[in-house]
Amino acid sequence: MNDDHLQRFGAEIEALRERTVASLGAQDARYIRRIQAAVRWSELLGRALLLIGAFLPGAWFWSFWGVGALTLGISKILDNMELGHNVIHGQYDWMGDPHLRGAVFEWDIAGTSANWRKTHNFRHHTYTNVHGMDDDIGYGVLRLFPEQKWTPAALFQPLYAVIFALYFQWGVAIQDIRLGRWFKSQRHRDMIKQEAVPVLRKMRRQLIKDYLVWPALAGPGFLAVAAGNLVANGLRNLWTYTIIFCGHFTTNAHTFPKHSVRNETRAHWYYRQILGSSNIAGGKLLNVLSGNLSHQIEHHLFPDVPANRYADMAVTVRDICRRYGVAYNTGSLPRQFGQVVWRILRHSFPSQPTEQGLAGMGAGAR
């Protein structure tokens, strides 16, 4: 696109946003309140099944325990993805509901919402896929693009990737602390200690709730309930990891050098968000369980618009991209995740920027 086409492209994207925001109302409010209720009641049901199952014999125990752990896991996924993530973005601030204000909402996860607003809402969404500015590129753990420096430690990243997936909430929780600064100076160590206080406090609260208080209510069934909570948290971690990585690290997702954001216009910011994002094709259930991040392109374009609108907005966004010749990356969950796995394996070995990667960097620098 030349500059004129780029500005017209951006204007159409902006017009879509304005039309959608102007139409927000009672239907959107009902939707998020139903999600709130679903989170609350599914958590109570899951925990009740785990507690009851702890006192049942044989097959009854395994049935109640399995369904309870799965139900609690779904509750945690909904709380993390469709409720917490989207509310913290400020998507429902327009409602004036103090329980749905992005600036104060806290979620059922080890990381604090305050840190998330800094690392995710600001840093990631402003500098999406910009090397040296977006910490979500590999999360400081994985080498996923050839533009990232290779070290021998990357050879073991297939193992790191599995561990990171299983403990994803904990990795995200400490992301903003930047533990690598510990060895730089005493000043950096003092900063880390100070910044770690609220994170450690939140971690302690989560551990006590899931692995002490609720298991203690089961008395002799303590270990069974604790194990159920562990499985539920593990399911949430694996699912969240899968959805986030499929939205950012597929084969056709572009990354950009720092100079690409100098004097960046709004139109170009929209362009960069589309090039750096990937959607996951699926139905309504996938949309809800993914927090509508199955429409990662639309989320990156409109992070403060209620996510339940993304499916409808995607029809227009895809048409705009088609008319302006902008690639719109989408695919099934197995296909997108397969590409992520290939990235993890391929870039554990030395590699150079590909022509596609260089093209993406050039497009970003337009």
TrEMBL record:
<feature type="domain" description="Fatty acid desaturase">
    <location>
        <begin position="62"/>
        <end position="330"/>
    </location>
</feature>
<dbReference type="InterPro" id="IPR012171">
    <property type="entry name" value="Fatty_acid_desaturase"/>
</dbReference>
<keyword id="KW-0560">Oxidoreductase</keyword>
<protein>
    <submittedName>
        <fullName>Acyl-CoA desaturase</fullName>
        <ecNumber>1.14.19.-</ecNumber>
    </submittedName>
</protein>
<feature type="transmembrane region" description="Helical">
    <location>
        <begin position="211"/>
        <end position="232"/>
    </location>
</feature>
<dbReference type="Pfam" id="PF00487">
    <property type="entry name" value="FA_desaturase"/>
</dbReference>
<keyword id="KW-0812">Transmembrane</keyword>
<dbReference type="GO" id="GO:0016491">
    <property type="term" value="F:oxidoreductase activity"/>
</dbReference>
<keyword id="KW-1133">Transmembrane helix</keyword>
<feature type="transmembrane region" description="Helical">
    <location>
        <begin position="44"/>
        <end position="65"/>
    </location>
</feature>
<dbReference type="InterPro" id="IPR005804">
    <property type="entry name" value="FA_desaturase_dom"/>
</dbReference>
<feature type="transmembrane region" description="Helical">
    <location>
        <begin position="159"/>
        <end position="179"/>
    </location>
</feature>
<keyword id="KW-0472">Membrane</keyword>
